[in-house]
Fold these 3 entries.
Entry 1:
Amino acid sequence: MLNSKDMRNVIRSIFILLCSSALLTACDKNFAKINTNPYATTDIDPALLFAGAQRTHIGTWQGEHTIVQHFLSPYNTGATKGFNFNEDVDANSTPKWGEYTSSIKNMYQALVLLGPDTDRKNLRSMIRIWMAQVFMGLVDNYGDVPYSEAGRAVTDAIFFPKYDDDAAIYEDLYKELKEAVADLNPSGDFVSADLFYGTNAQPSTRTASAADQVAKWKKLGNSLLLRLGMRYSKVNPTKAASIVAEAFNGGVMTSNADNAHVKLDGQSFIHGDNAALRNFSHFNYAAELFVDQLKNTGDPRAKFLVAAFTDPGSLTNEVNPDTTLANQFGAPAGITSDEIAAGAPYRGTRGTGLNYSQINVHTIASTAVPVFWVTYSQTALLLAEAAWRGWIPGGDAAAQDYYEKAIAADMEIYSLYPNTYPITNSEIAAYLAHPNVAWNSADALRLINTQYWVVNIKNGTEAFANYRRSGYPVLQPNPYITQPIRRLSYPDVEGLNNNANYVAASAAIGGDLLTSRVFWDIP
């Protein structure tokens, strides 16, 4: 029998247990409410993730544009000692990789949210097409990249994705583009959030119905398929011809109304690379090869592309720089700022910089530019080469027609840039008739791909890829470069955070070197 003291202890224990149980029950009832942030986003429309991913990276002035000599930095010290001096500076190689860590994750998450049985099949197809575009750019720049396990940290806890073989990725991108285009349904969902052709697109490309939007996305998907097919032109011409014919028969872009682009406002949405260019303007100069191309053809686009500023260190303060073509001079490749500053045979200094032209920061390099990823002009130039090669119908006559329409189309879109005015039809006609531009079947590959280089002053990733594919332009000899740069190097952080996969990928491509080649870029 319990004594009085023991009885009191038992009663006390029972009381504490009952109180604890009641307290836990009360806490459990309010746990979710107490631990939920009332201001947090708990559900998101996959279309918004997709729209965010449509603003992907398109090449940096210090990166791809420097390699193909649109632009260069004559300064060979510190962070400015980049590709022009054969230096592998991490900051110049990494921007495109940001697509893997941002837009790919967003698009993969959007696909997971939609699921395979979604009734928003057009949105799902658009995301697949745009993911293919992003991955194509990553492969073109780096070679082997994370693909099958990319973007799966949240959904599958894969924090250290393996790298896939670049040729195998291209095979799957071909499948993705074909399937996604086929799955687009003109009677299906209208994706209002689509920045290219949806409600908030630019007036020139905006649609108001699923049928019209799907028609444009089919053209975009097939134009990307054309681009993919042309990449095989050196490594497997037979395969290239087959894919190009498929894309052409499926229906590619036919006018500037099909262009995949987004117009930035320069305030809420700015072009980050252009903002950096303005902030460090005295390091940045138009390349001699590019300026000479503009001068030797009397290119009416030149006034929007390059300018001579009184002080290269204060471009934003000079709103009316000298754009007279005869007064433009590009900086030579591989010549240091000290050599230039010393004078003859070089042009010496001007203001706080060097006496050479710079990219025009008030037009082509404004922070409020339209950003073009895939255009009718690019597409028509690829069609010109395909027709000339006999891969699509029409032969030489069709090749010339595509070539001339591509140039005219590119000139027409400059009216969308700030501080520009339309290039006239007479200016376009005079340019097409110029002896250094006029169609010549015997010189077709050089003519077509040189124009592709000029057109892609707006897209460094594509300019770099097509230079390696076609061999044009023939770059100005650079005393610092014994072997041309063929790819960008992986980010340094990959060697730290994802070391095992980074080491395996580097070995697979022949080393994480600027001179290693992606699979389609054979010597």
Entry 2:
Amino acid sequence: MPIFSRSIVFLILGLATCLPLSAQGALTQILQPKAAANPPAKTGADPLGRETPYGTVFGFLEAAQAGNYSIAAQYLQMSPAHRQTQGDAMAMKLNVAMNSSFAGNLRPSRQPEGTLQEDVPSDRQKLGTMVSGDIEDELELVRVTDPNTGRIWLISSDTLSRIPELYDQIVARRVETRLPAWVVRHQLAGMPLWQWFALVLLIPVAAAVGWVLLLGLEVPLLWWMKKQVPGFWQWRSVSGPEWLLGGTLVHRILASYLGMPLLPRHYYLQVTAVLIVISANWILWRVIRWFLHRVRNRALAHGHGGTGSLMLLGERLVKAAVFMLAAFVILGILGFNMSTALAGLGIGGLAIGFGAQKTIENLFGGVSVLGDEVIRVGDVCRFGDRTGTVEDIGLRSTRVRTEERTLLAIPNGTVATINVENLSRRDKMLFKTVLGLRTETTPDHLRYVLSEIRRILYSHPKIETKTVRVRLTELASGSINVELVCYVLTQDFNEFAAVREDLLLRIMHLVEDSGTGFALPSQTLYLGRDSGLEKDKADAAVKKVTEWRDGKQLPFPDFTDENISSFRGSIDYPQPESAQRNQTREAGKNNGKDD
């Protein structure tokens, strides 16, 4: 069971971090960066750091956890005489009461003025309550004026008044009285050994309970999804993070009955909260990936390639946003001031925006290209003077595989501004050429050639007859130029090349049979005897044109619509001698036999 072992490792590693985090020096440095930079003992004029509620609470807990009750008593609102005689005992009892029965959010303010609370005077702060049996006491801080250090925060005398009674109730109900003395007496990082043993033993218990809960939820869900959702087995990819989430929650619930000391409990809750955020973010990450992949495949199946590419870009942006959100939540759990961080992020964002204009331009350029569906992955396009197949449209650039098989990366901002020619979107392909005939060709001879070329184009099944244009365009010094323009009814370039080749070969036979020829380059020097035009063939061509003229059937400026209709499809293509035509014919015969 690979998921089981992987989740066990995650849970053990996460909970094992409680040990170093609860140590006095390391936990302050790792989880409370502000406290590490400005520890309570060094803030302001007060050497004990009592100028803020945070400094008072954590200063007392750290001193009491270290056993320095005389220092811890300095955080209590007591007269000097009472502090001298009863301060150590009161600090010890308060520490026990806070560790065993405190219920609340241990996040005191870091500001000297504290936090404004409803129905609470401005010089007081209520942090939570301490309850044991029928005894309840409220943990309250009060701001007083010290003659030596000025305004400081202390644990109020109202709170201290009920501590002895609360302490007696806690001692009577403590489970330590039923455990071996050595596991109660010895401590590690301010927490008794029996609680450490209990935390470790709860890991396999929480993992087993989490696995049972996961099966109880997953079996009916997968049974339903098997009938409703294609590709439902991909949902099993979230089993690992789901197990980590369930196991952490179960462990946290069970650990709440151990009565851990307040400071280690605070850091334990922070660590488990981080694990919960990580596992929830993990689940959300995989669900988003599965959902967007499904939407993208559906768009591609319906022929919306641009939407599919846009979904791929959107998936990357959403994943980045989810990661950033999880990072901010974790930083908030660890005690960072997120309002300051967000303000700094806004200012930094402006600076980055000015410094990364090209990056932002490329990002929005990619979104606009994908949104307009000008190009899609797999299209053959011409970007300026470069032609290639689009392989990917990313956050920064569009990658194109050129005809030379090189990989060309074009910034999306450039793609959005230049002229992009999508060759894959052609519904038909243009065939255009100029034929140079010999200057000795007579007008009637030329009329014959023009009409026969038109006849070939009108007769070819792969040529669009409405767009055929064969015209005499120029009487040059070395040739008589005829322009040939038509559209080949195909989107495949290989088929277009084959049709073009067939047309050129037929035109070559026509020109040869008509008695004329193609003009040689004007710079060529004739050194041999030239018989000129073949008189018999030329006379036959002229005679044919004379017959057309006498019969009023001269096909100029073009053939009649009836002639064009009669020509349509009269040319065999591929030619009868073509191996491909014979292969197709044999395949048709075989199919007939099979039938």
Entry 3:
Amino acid sequence: MRANLFFAIILACLTFNASAGNLPATQQLIKSADSCMQMMRQGDTAAASAIVLRLLKVADQIPDSYARGNIFRVAASYYGEKWNYEKAGSFYNKAYETASKLPHDDREKLKAITLFNHSLIFYQHGDYQQAISMCLEANHYYQMVNDNNGIAETSNRLGGLYLLLLDNEKAAFYNRKAYLYSLKSDDKNLQSLCLNAYGNYLLAQENTDSALIMYKKAIESALESGNKKLIADAYYNISFCYSGLEKFEEALSMIKSAHQWAIKSGNQYDICDTRYKTGLVLYYMNNSGPARDTLLKALNEASQLGSSMLQRNIYDALTYLEADNGNYKLAWDYLNKYIDLQILIFSEEDQKQVSYLNARYDAEKREADILRQKAMIQRRNFILIVAGIMLFALAITIILSIILQRRKQRIAQQELVIRQQKITELEKEKELVAVQSTLKGEETERSRIARDLHDGLGGMLSGVKLSLTNMNGSQILDEDNARLFEQAINLIDSSVKELRWVAHNMMPEILLKEGLNEALTTFCRSFSGPPEIRYHAFGESMRFEKGFELTVYRVVQELVNNALKHSAAGEIVVELIQEPERLSLNVRDNGKGFDPGISYFSGHGLSNIRSRIGSYSGLFDISSREGLGSEAMISFNDTKPYVRNN
């Protein structure tokens, strides 16, 4: 009660300040609206209800602004959660109308977030095409204002929608896009959310190993942000993976971890759900007693929550458990309760769907009335236009002639542009061939020089050392000359080692013999530090054609050497991910970072890297912030043409 009174006093102050154009007060309104959205996500609709009503009173007293439109958006989301789709649609329209009156950045930002929230209603009711259309439009607005967080969120939802429509290609594209854009953000919660979603996509494609990697990365990001719910969700997903693989011991360990994190987060629904899943795994492991006790505890929690869905699922599990143990009467009772709850859930869903369809019908009816009025106006205007045409026939003829002439000119210009584009494409192909030829020539020359150094100069130095060593035994030297003689032999020995290292670096034999994974392992281990250089490889190791492997190896060389020279890092991490038709690299350090607008690559290092990667149609992205290290990402999305046929 005191909290509500305190909030009312704050809103009263904000009303006065916001109406006077006070910027800090406007920011407070935005934060209050965002806090209300967070309450709804956590299921606290009672607290959200009081805040929504107070915010709407404030909205009626302030001029058009981002804060006012944001309040309408939050109110629409609240009424959507309450199944009142007519009011939800009305407030969404007010939010769009307010956005249309704002300056560019605020207009695009408010449109984007409103479209994103609005799409959820269509998503929940199976109107996936409409939801996709609204998410694509929201994504467009987010890109206009360079909002990486918004792009990641909308891409994440688009990935889920396309997965439901079984469009795996688009689902993969948007899930990867969500993950890559979340990495550009400092929001670890967003990163964890996108990693979880990417893992769900991979799991749907039966790529369980890669899905597990994504879920574990999601846990790392969520641990950094301290978001206990996201940690619980990731452990929950890992447990589901192990259950599907029938690794029930691992599944039990993971769901217990999910349950503990759910308790820490305080989310009662997640606490009950993870306890139910724990009982289910125990049932799969034939531990009937512990399974029964756990499921009954979960049933009590679900009853207190008033969750029909959870109660139905728990009764389903108890039915099978008691039937397996010969308790058929009890199993029959549980089955009846399961059926009653199933009917109740269907009834609730039907009510939601009817409310949704009524709101859609009312909206379409209003649109039809508007269209009829427009048609009447158009008919009246048509009569006026016909009269005007008769009066100005000559003028129109002249105008049409001019338009026709200009159209011919535009067609000619378009044909010229098309020809120029074809010429440009041919020039790009020519440049690509030239780059590949240059790189091939460079590697050939490196190989020749390395061979000459190793076989020629290396052999000569070894011979000189041997001759001097033999002379040392047959000559009488005083103590000073003997010491100088020994130093000369040691210097020649060091020169031979350095020469062999240079020759190996120019053309590493292990790359040609053992492949990319072994070559990168040897390369990273060749540095004794500091800094510490760590190398990780994921996926199935495979061999590629010589040119492709050399390109990837040289790129890693260049990135690591530049990090050693300039970053002052304590740690450099190199990651290689190999999938059946895709290869990705990640090189990051925890050094001082740099301004992305000013390259810290010496000479033509960065352009050489881009040329090498571009010659194999790869993608390259490097990001950094001063004081926070740097990260380079390289991906080749179609490596099938370069796989070596063994």
